[in-house]
Amino acid sequence: MPWAFELTPEGLKREADVKPAESIASRTGRKLDYVIIGALVLALGYFGYDKFLLAPKREAALVENAKQDFQKQAAAAADAQKSIAVLPFVNMSSDKDAADPYG
Fold first, then answer.
1. Helix, strand, or coil (residue 28)
2. Whole-angstrom distance, CA of residue 78 vs CA of residue 30
3. How far is CA 96 from the centre of its chain?
4. pLDDT tens for each residue of 21-33
5. Within a domain: residue 51?
6. Rounded to two decimals, what is the model's pTM?
7. Using the 8-state DSSP alphabet, how is residue 20 labeled?
8. Separation CA 31–CA 42 (nearest Å)
9. Is residue 20 part of a domain?
């Protein structure tokens, strides 16, 4: 089914009112094809740039951050192993002799 309207130099007209010799549909379609092809080339260029130039740098930065986080966690774990906790003993029993094994 052909288009119901056509864009002409005089404006938008019904296709039935435009003579085939005055039609610029093929030129308009060709211009639209060039615009679409140009947009696709730009999109492919951007995706290629992102994939091959930017992505390796991002991945290297992520790996470096992961290494630093692991080193911080390992240092924190090593510090935690060296700590000593001293807890006071409070005799809360009503029978003072039964609760004191040394007395």
1. helix
2. 70
3. 66
4. 767 777 777 888 9
5. yes
6. 0.46
7. G
8. 17
9. yes
